[in-house]
Amino acid sequence: MAVFRPFPAVRPVRDKAQYVAALPYDVMNSDEAREMVQGNPWSFLHVDKAEIDLPPETGLYDEIVYRTAAANLAKMKADGIMTKDGKPCFYLYREIMNGRSQTGIVGCASIDDYLDGTIKKHELTVAAKEEDRKRHVDVCDANTGIIFLTFRGNDCISEIMAETAGEVPEYDFTSSDGVRHIVWVIDRDDRIAALTDAFRQVPALYIADGHHRAASAVRVGVKRREANPSYTGNEEFNYFLAAAFPAGELSIWDYNRVVKDLNGLTPEEFIEKLRSCYTVTPYPETAWADSLEQVKPETPHTCSLYMDGRWYSLKADMSRVDSDDPVAGLDVSFLQNQVLGPVLGITDPRTDSRISFVGGIRGLAELKRLVDGGAKAAFAMYPTTMEDLMSIADAGEIMPPKSTWFEPKLRSGLFIHELS
Predict the structure, then answer these.
(1) pTM higher than 0.90, yes or no?
(2) Residue 116 in contact with residue 374, Cβ under 8 Å?
């Protein structure tokens, strides 16, 4: 059963939250981050991507980057931009995007739950990215990036969430991308106890997003245990910052594929190859003349192809879909195993420069733009489901790369978990 406990967050004072809150460090590059913080010295990107305050030639993994992050965090506290709650609390965090909301509980998860598999994973991590965040956590002596967890619903947790959401929030602001962020502090002892007990009834937590942040936080915790062999298990380094959302609150967006070439095939030859595993139907031009939404795949085991100025509907040959295997049965796996690998020669999409991935937040217009600009073909995918994600994690399997895209993104800087 899961351990999820309250903690005394370091967080922005009320009137500064909208300036501090920032997108996660890994959804933009350094140049984009420098542009984003123009005129905003309080943006949390000064902590999460501290290279933006250093000369552009500074290496991303230079020690000065981590020391600058720690110094910037200390300065935000010293200047009164951020303060620490006087007792361990839970926090209710709601985001509203395009009229749809998602609400979860912010607290701390256990590194032991990660190590023993109570916290389930569905992605592999990259060693360099994991080492980067480990050093960031260790030098800052804090979890600054929030791990996005989900779980199968619990009535008690849902009831407390609903009660809390009826009260006056601590923060309520809309970020520049149009997402509304609302936070309530759960500091009543009875609610804290009830939530702690309720999470003990949750059999598993699942990482929705933040595999590198989670792995890094656990590595720091293990390192500190080794340095403190008499640790009790109650020290803050035994836990890491997370937000746990009931699965019913979340929606996975499509994660689309763009290929740079057709492996020597003409568009006509490529279509013929596709017919061995998909029913290929050209969309009439009128279907996308006004809105590309009309060519967006609407059911599982379908996707849309844009190539040579035309859109096509691709419907998978179900006799080739392995429905008994939760990974092989994914639409992204079918495309990889039937087309990208054997036809286009893209056998390792993690490393092959001939393929790129486009999050659904950018829309199908971005796929069209890329192909019209020189790429050869784009595949608009039907989104992976939450049940797919949890079933694969339950089976101890790993999803193909770039299978899930979550929106809206949890903001960094609203909650900091100090390790000592």
Answers:
(1) yes
(2) no
